[in-house]
């Protein structure tokens, strides 16, 4: 598979994922707006703390299989070892189900032991955890089902259920809870019903549109051989990695809850999702990048990988930077429009978080490249170091600086892990994205952000919509004039545009038909 074909497949596949992820994140913010209009900041903070506990539980109980399964399915498909694919699917689902059921028994008791005499002495968070914990087995099986489809290049399934069905149902159930003036317990129960509903729809889809053809599916049998052990050996470091990467996001909430009031936790967790949009492009492309490059590794076609890494990273940052610049320069505007003036105290934290999150797009697909190459052990070590930095910085700064200290901890830890993974990809695989054109782009964006901040501080910018439009148009004109994209990339873009128009004309009717089933 050539560089052109690989890039075309990644971009074409991620186009639908990108749209779905954007819709899902937008719905998540709308849902938070609905909830924050009904719940007091203290109640919303309690709900956020409980969601953090459930998210940590789910990440641990997934056992890293959500990343290991698609990698190995794509890898063995590249080697045409179909029987190993069957074993992976069955063993992963069984292990996920057992882990999910065990989490129901262990997680509430463990949380009570750790926090019952601390920040949750009154048991408010624990009462919410005891309800939401029943969503964990459904979440794990949903994660693994999406991972299986991802290994077969059917990445649109993630959009159907995680970006449409789940957030739409959550918004619907949450709106009903607010409409009937339900208490915090009612909102929590609405969340649980949303996950059960999403799992039910996924089960119907899995039966009607299985990832493997029915003729092949009949050959499956339950077995736990060398392939399963190989999956566990690869996935266990990813379990540690995923857990620690998630903890890097959640440790802010936990430590803010310990040192500060639930109101501060609520404000911080309201503004935090805004910077999630900065990872929108890289996560969408990475969702397709891993199975495509894993299959190349399985076929022993490694020559195109370096060029794929360079091109995709540059394109990813090109598309992400305009949103970063607007969030960084106008944080008060975004918060006020979304949540109201009572949350504007989170503006400084939002600006700092934006600096940390843009590093994900700037360094690009280092994590995904290491994941596809099978270097899960290093990802684990890297995440351990970064999580340690996060905890240390938070412990030093949160008691005095509150949510600003939490934001600094997240930004420093996220940036450090990106640097470590980039150095690893460079030293082990001789891959990095820092071509002369990418260095030129770096200089341009730094100059533009500096100029915008200076103009705002001089009261030359007011935050009017025409300023945003002018900035975006000017940005892409400068990129074009500076020749950041070479002629080969321009040809790729033209070809991708043609293919995308053709695919979207087929996908929209197909998606509507699928969701109607």
TrEMBL record:
The keyword Membrane appears for this protein: yes
Superkingdom, taxonomy of origin: Archaea
Key words, A-Z: Cell membrane, Membrane, Transmembrane, Transmembrane helix
Major localization listed first in the record, in broad terms: membrane
The keyword Nucleotide-binding is assigned to this record: no
Annotated compartments: Cell membrane
CDD domains tied to this protein: MATE_Wzx_like
Topological type in the membrane: Multi-pass membrane protein
Coiled coil start-end: none
Chain segments annotated as transmembrane: 7-27, 47-67, 88-111, 131-149, 161-180, 186-207, 231-251, 271-290, 311-331, 343-366, 378-398, 404-426, 438-455, 461-482
Pfam family, one: Polysacc_synt
One GO CC annotation: plasma membrane
Name of the protein: Heteropolysaccharide repeat unit export protein
